[in-house]
Amino acid sequence: MLNPHNTEICIIGAGPAGATLSHFLSKQKIEHTLVDKATFPRDKICGDGITIDVLNVLKRINPELLEEFAAQPEMLESWGFCFHGSNGKELRYDFSKDGFPYPPFFTSRRIDLDNFLVQRLNPAYCNFLSGNTVKSIARVEDGLEILSQSALGGTLIKAKMIVGAEGEKPVVTKALGLPHFREKKNLIGGIRVYYKNVKGFNEGNHLEFFFDKKLLPGYFWAFPLGNGMANVGLGMVSTEIAKRKVNLKKMFEQMLTEHPRVSNMFAEAEPMEKPKGWGLPLITPKRIIAGKNYALIGDAAGMIEPFTGKGIGPGMMSARICSEHLAEALKTKNYDLTSYQQHMYRYYNSEIRAGYGLQKSLKYPMALNTVVGLFNTGALKNWSHQKMVKEWKNWM
Ligand SMILES: Cc1cc2nc3c(=O)[nH]c(=O)nc-3n(C[C@H](O)[C@H](O)[C@H](O)COP(=O)(O)OP(=O)(O)OC[C@H]3O[C@@H](n4cnc5c(N)ncnc54)[C@H](O)[C@@H]3O)c2cc1C
């Protein structure tokens, strides 16, 4: 016996993108349903690096939410980042003396970040069906019928619009019989391992990125999580993984033992889990992310920035933008959400171009080392530092 359920908007997936959309809809007093196959807290393979765009979206939901986020003991303040060139030189930016109200970065295990967002959903407007896996979606005359399955039985959700926030593995496009864009050059393969007893992080908990000749055009990261714990991993564009038949796990081990700086940091470190892999779909305007009665946000829409691999901020930003178009659709009763797609790609136009340009530069170790070397000189370092400070102050 199916449980019937009616809603105007049904969001599939309560990761940062889906949960953020729920927060924005609740803010506009729009009732909706949010479905996730997991029960929270749950893990998600990620680098756990939280960037300034996340802080911006939290503030737009509610400045108090940002304050509350920053006060959580699970959110570790991070005051800078460092690029380690393949020649051993480093380019470090420290923002601790720039008068920011909050640090520009945080780290938080995704089990904590995602749970923080989900715990604060507004039950007055959000009907949250956790532990419910979406099994099928069908178009019907006045919208869609979504069948979800939980341990307690099935639910048949009738909705006017559906938003796919289900992450990297397509559910919505597949069920609706829509093309799902998946090209190797727009996909990064990554692995993550949690470690303890890692030494040598900067006292401001900087995010450390390592570019090594063997790894390029990929990179290795070590992000501190406090008390000697770290999120460690590496990522590489899938075309290169296939072309060079790269074994990411082997490469990861090599970095830990052979890279002079990394091997020092990890001399006494112990892994807390086996390496876990996941895909990072990169933002490209070639991907169709909206149409009649549907929109995609976050990884389901391939919102990851090509150079850094950051996807939490852009995923949450896509949710913010999508919420505007959903509200408009409800007002006008025109449920074609194509305008959201145009808005998104316009908004990220310059980041897309810069991101793929920088990603290309990673193919050439000499070019990368020259950039790291050049930017380390006083005037350029100061200019680039101030440019980031100016841009980021507008975001907070
Ligand atoms: C190795 C690695 C490192 C990364 N490092 C960083 C980083 O440091 N910083 C950063 O900003 N980004 C990073 N990213 C990218 C980031 O993890 C993603 O961009 C982000 O998780 C996208 O959030 P989302 O809400 O779109 O999807 P997800 O977080 O994947 O959430 C999707 C949700 O949908 C649910 N779901 C899936 N299928 C169904 C179904 N059939 N029915 C119901 N629910 C379903 C899942 O349970 C899940 O809760 C990294 C990614 C990887 C793989």
Topology (elements, then pairings):
Elements: E1 3-12, H1 16-27, E2 32-36, E3 49-50, H2 52-61, H3 63-71, E4 76-78, E5 80-84, E6 90-94, E7 105-107, H4 110-119, E8 126-130, E9 133-140, E10 143-150, E11 153-164, H5 172-175, E12 187-196, E13 207-210, E14 219-226, E15 229-237, H6 238-243, H7 248-258, H8 260-265, E16 270-271, E17 276-281, E18 290-291, E19 294-296, H9 312-332, H10 338-347, H11 349-361, H12 365-375, H13 378-395
Parallel strand pairs: 1-2, 1-11, 2-8, 5-13, 11-19
Antiparallel strand pairs: 3-7, 4-7, 5-6, 9-10, 10-11, 12-15, 12-16, 12-17, 13-14, 14-15, 18-19
This protein binds flavin-adenine dinucleotide.
The site of flavin-adenine dinucleotide has 40 residues, from helix 1, strand 2, strand 9, strand 12 and strand 15.
Describe this structure in words.
The chain is of the alpha+beta class and 396 residues long. The protein has two domains: 181 residues, FAD/NAD(P)-binding domain (3-Layer(bba) Sandwich); 165 residues, D-Amino Acid Oxidase, subunit A, domain 2 (D-Amino Acid Oxidase, Chain A, domain 2, 2-Layer Sandwich), CATH 3.30.9. Helix content is 36%, strand content 28%. The strands form three sheets. Strands 1, 2, 8, 9, 10, 11, 18 and 19 form an eight-stranded mixed β-sheet that branches. Strands 5, 6, 12, 13, 14, 15, 16 and 17 form an eight-stranded mixed β-sheet that branches. Helix 2 crosses helix 3 and helix 2 runs parallel beside helix 9. The radius of gyration is 21 Å and the shape is globular. The N and C termini lie far apart (50 Å). The relative contact order is 0.17. The mean pLDDT is 94. The structure holds flavin-adenine dinucleotide.
